[in-house]
Design a protein that fits this description.
Elements lengths: L5 H11 L37 E11 L5 E7 L8 E4 L3 E8 L7 E4 L23 E7 L4 E7 L2 H5 L3 E7 L10 E10 L17 E4 L10 E4 L3 E8 L5 E5 L5 E5 L2 E2 L10 E4 L4 E7 L4 E7 L63 E7 L1 H4 L3
Parallel strand pairs: 1-4, 3-8, 9-12, 11-19
Antiparallel strand pairs: 1-2, 4-6, 5-7, 7-8, 9-10, 12-17, 13-16, 13-18, 14-15, 14-17, 18-19
């Protein structure tokens, strides 16, 4: 089976987003690649520079981490995570925030240098926004890099209230990237027979990238030879060592913006701490389906249960005599991955290796990418 063309990907993504409010994408003249939030299925918002404010609704959102695993979370504009706000350094933005939650709330612009009255901290810089109320934030951006917005009410953060806030530079950083992806990392505790996250829990059984858990995460497709940027944001309770197979990258930015070059320290695992952002860049030299995942063992599985050790062993089986057996269970679930075109061509049983905070970087030859 051949890989999809860009046009087929666009058509499928539009179908996935039909229930969302679509906004015109911002094409920055300072870069050849716009942040690709397709894997979150979230439309980009618009900046005041284009004559329209950004509407941001805080509201309950029913979503699925994998098909059939329904979760009643809280998010923005009908999605978890919320829509990507994508602007350019020097823009003045106006964001109209509406509270459709049953309790008070205010959003914080994480890492942005804004006037104190715009910082979004309830009780410090403003009164919290009451249910049914709204607040207009307006500020001029003099930074560039990977930032994010989130509720500044702690338990609301754990209900899913976060979104990317990407500020492109006035002039492109060099070398210029061809592909630019944003990934939000989150943890959740969802008890059996329940759909509401337990935000007081200190343990987690679901790990997501952009609101999806493997194998339902969407692979990132790039051409061999392209320079790729991955932007990671961690909004949770655990740190995440994110590892990329088959490639070496450099860290080019943090939650404070672009780091100073030259970038000569190569690695393949980057630790993304709580409330941090990390930008990494690499040249996709090698074709293949390369795993991208958190390397904490308990973050490479879904809905952890007490399933290891002798309680799961038939005493009549020879394996019962092996101390510790069983540990890992091989459970391919290709049906849970859905029919996304980005998964076309993967071998049967590929989902057995994909659970929790995982996705794939699929490096393909240019003619395959173009659908030749």
């Amino acid at each position: 089976m051949s890989l999809p063309t860009r046009e087929s990907i666009a058509r499928t993504v539009l179908r996935e987003e039909e229930a969302a409010t679509l906004y015109e994408p911002i094409e920055s003249p300072a870069t050849t690649a716009r942040v690709d939030e397709r894997i979150a299925s979230n439309p980009p918002a618009r900046s005041e520079r284009f004559g329209a404010p950004v509407p941001l609704r805080a509201e309950p959102v029913r979503t699925e981490f994998v098909p059939g695993r329904v979760v009643d979370a809280w998010g923005f504009n009908g999605s978890v995570p919320g829509p990507t706000i994508e602007v350019t350094e020097g823009d003045t933005v106006r964001i109209i925030v509406e509270n459709r939650l049953p309790e008070v709330f205010a959003p914080h612009w994480h890492g942005l240098e804004v006037p104190i009255t715009m910082d979004g901290v309830p009780g410090i810089s403003q009164d919290p926004i009451a249910p049914g109320g709204s607040f207009t934030y307006e500020f001029t951006l003099h930074q560039n890099g990977t930032f994010f917005y989130h509720s500044h009410m702690a338990m609301q953060e754990m209900m899913g209230m976060i979104g990317l806030f990407i500020i492109h530079p006035r002039a492109a950083h060099t070398p210029v990237v061809a592909r630019d992806f944003g990934i939000i990392l989150q943890e959740w505790m969802i008890h059996p027979n329940n759909t509401v996250p337990n935000t007081l829990s200190m343990e987690f059984n679901w790990l997501t990238m952009n609101g999806k858990s493997a194998p339902a995460t969407t692979p990132l497709i790039v051409k061999r030879g392209e320079r790729v940027r991955l932007r990671f944001v961690n909004m949770g309770m655990d740190h995440h060592p994110i590892h990329l197979h088959g490639n070496q990258f450099v860290v080019t930015g943090t939650e404070a913006g672009r780091a100073g070059g030259p970038f000569t320290f190569y690695e393949n695992t980057v630790l993304v701490g709580v409330a941090q952002a990390r930008d990494v860049e690499f040249v996709a030299e090698y074709t293949g389906d390369w795993m991208l995942h958190c390397h904490l063992p308990h973050h490479m599985m879904n809905q952890m249960v007490a399933m290891v050790g002798p309680m799961m062993v038939d005493p009549a089986q020879p394996s019962a005599k092996v101390p510790g057996y069983p540990q890992d269970m091989w459970m391919p679930m290709d049906d849970l991955a859905g029919t996304k075109p980005e998964t076309y061509g993967l071998r049967d049983g590929w989902t057995g290796a994909m659970m929790g905070m995982m996705t794939l970087v699929r490096v393909v030859e240019p003619d395959v990418f173009e659908g030749a």
